[in-house]
Design a protein that fits this description.
single chain, alpha/beta, four-stranded mixed β-sheet
């Protein structure tokens, strides 16, 4: 769908209308922004690409900000100010070119030297005008020296500067600043990686380490936009890439990963922009009451089996699941590929198919799963037996690359059946980790298609806090805790330990809600 920039603004005509103005017309700027937001909503509801909409809106705000800056620079130019080198930069999400309808417009006013007093009046009047026209402004005014100093001390400032984008002014300042912050002394790639991973760990903990929240935060929750940004930040610091397209061109991700990343990003972008436009404010929480509105805006309709809002949320949860998977893969791959300790380690043999290297289980040959598809399940039984908790990223990639081999022949293969059942016959340690990973990598849904149908499936009520697959894995976790911590519920633990074949109970728990993916009464359908 064509969405021309000229529909939002003709910069030449706009500037000409302001040529002899003594002050900028606030009403005209506000009307331009309001018109743009209306068009964004119309084009989004007509199916326009979220990437195009964000690019167009970012471009519009660029034009208005630059026009305002040039006007106030001209108004306040004195003999002293004329000698000062100053540049206007976009930072944060605005710097990335991902400006959502009501997101903050983050600006950095970059000075060559610490000459703040001379530029104070210019900066204050410029920022006051941006607030007056309705923009949410985040700003800082720093010299190149101060930026470098602050970046060394604060990883958030460092991150913002990595994403900085020139708007107007002396572009040489940006070049100088960029070279300084990318020097090894300013957050080495290894230190930056560790800092961002810890930052992500803490953020995930704030959201109970689950993407399956009833009211997820599209930006901050696990599987949200921040997880995608973390990937880019880490690779930006080391390789200088600023987009997933750059990563693909430098062979840092493969074609399949690039396709999934872009699709997931666009879905999250569309939902976040839609949420902003419906609520008319900066809102990133997909609240229970607004989910129905979003579903209606996006054209979902109720069916006999699933409500429109349930279809919308299923798409979100599946998208978040893909983001979590790619975040794990790409951060792990970065860690392994850029750590000499990993490259120098020879590892030790586990069996004829797998080795253990730096506490990560890894396939011995790249074609293992294509030759022995059942080894994809065997991998998890070995993890249980040897109490291994990590998988090499190349091995995870190989699982996904060979999921097409998990077909009817694979499911009916006695070896595959025996290996899968071994997971449940084990004393319980590692079962939840195995099933969660198999679900994350798509293997569990491929092996048990009826389970695949409930992945991301939610029920739109306040009683069901988790998606069906999330709830099922939570049940599995609680059952295995009865074995691992018998003192918590001694009677239940004793009953479980006395069962003749406890794996039957565990299998029953795995399958107890699978019929919810078919619609109708799952308690009846589940029997068939």
């Amino acid at each position: 769908m064509h969405f021309a920039k000229s529909k939002l603004l003709n910069p030449a005509v706009f500037k000409k209308s302001l040529k002899d103005a003594k002050q900028l017309p606030i009403a005209t700027f506000k009307k331009t922004i309001k018109n743009a937001l209306t068009q964004l909503k119309e084009h989004q509801n007509e199916g326009a690409s979220a990437a195009i909409l964000l690019e167009r809106y970012t471009w519009l705000i660029d034009q208005l900000v630059i026009i305002a800056w040039d006007f106030y620079l001209k108004q306040h130019t004195t003999e002293r100010l004329a000698t000062i080198d100053v540049e206007l930069l976009a930072v944060g999400g605005y710097g990335r070119g991902e400006l959502h309808p009501f997101s903050d417009v983050d600006l950095l006013i970059l000075l060559a030297n610490d000459e703040y007093d001379e530029a104070k009046e210019l900066i204050e009047n410029f920022l006051r005008f941006l607030w007056d026209i309705g923009l949410e402004i985040g700003h800082s005014a720093r010299s190149v020296k101060d930026c470098t100093k602050e970046a060394k001390a604060d990883i958030t400032i460092m991150t913002n500067l990595l994403e900085a984008r020139h708007l107007t002014g002396n572009s040489k300042l940006f070049t100088i600043l960029d070279s300084k912050i990318r020097a090894p002394r300013s957050w080495s790639p290894e230190k930056f990686f560790n800092g961002k991973v810890e930052e992500q760990r803490q953020r995930h903990a704030q959201y109970q380490d689950t993407a399956y929240s009833l009211e997820p935060n599209l930006k901050e929750s696990p599987g949200g936009l921040r997880d995608l940004q973390t990937i880019l930040w880490v690779y930006n610091r080391h390789f200088g890439v600023r987009s997933f397209k750059d990563m693909k061109e430098q062979d840092l991700i493969n074609d399949d990963e690039y396709r999934i990343l872009i699709r997931a990003r666009n879905i999250l972008w569309k939902m976040r922009s839609g949420l902003h436009l419906i609520t008319n404010r900066h809102e990133d929480r997909l609240l229970f009451d607004t989910q129905r509105q979003i579903a209606e805006e996006f054209g979902y309709v109720d069916t006999p089996n699933h409500l429109a809002v349930e279809q919308l949320m299923k798409r979100y949860y599946r998208t978040a699941k893909h983001v979590i998977y790619l975040n794990e893969i790409l951060l792990a791959h970065y860690r392994v590929s850029n750590n000499t300790r990993f490259s120098l380690s020879s590892g030790r043999n586990i069996d004829e198919d797998f080795i253990l290297k730096n506490k990560l289980i890894e396939q011995r040959s790249d074609d293992l799963f294509s030759r022995k598809p059942h080894a994809m399940i065997k991998l998890f039984t070995l993890m249980q037996n040897h109490k291994i908790t990590g998988i090499h990223p190349d091995t995870i990639r190989a699982i996904r690359a060979n999921l097409s081999l998990v077909n009817n022949d694979f499911r009916s293969d006695p070896t595959s059946k025996e290996l899968f059942l071994k997971l449940f016959k084990h004393e319980g340690i590692g079962l939840t980790n195995a099933l969660s990973r198999m679900n994350a990598y798509g293997l569990l849904g491929a092996y048990i298609p009826i389970f695949g149908a409930i992945v991301g499936q939610m029920q739109h009520d306040l009683f069901h806090v988790y998606t069906v697959d999330g709830h099922t894995l939570k049940v599995m976790e609680n059952l295995t805790r009865l074995r691992k911590y018998p003192d918590e519920f001694p009677i239940a633990s004793e009953i479980l330990s006395s069962l003749y074949k406890p794996e039957r109970l565990l299998l029953g728990a795995l399958f107890h809600d699978v019929a919810k993916g078919r619609g109708g009464d799952h308690s009846i359908l589940g029997e068939s």
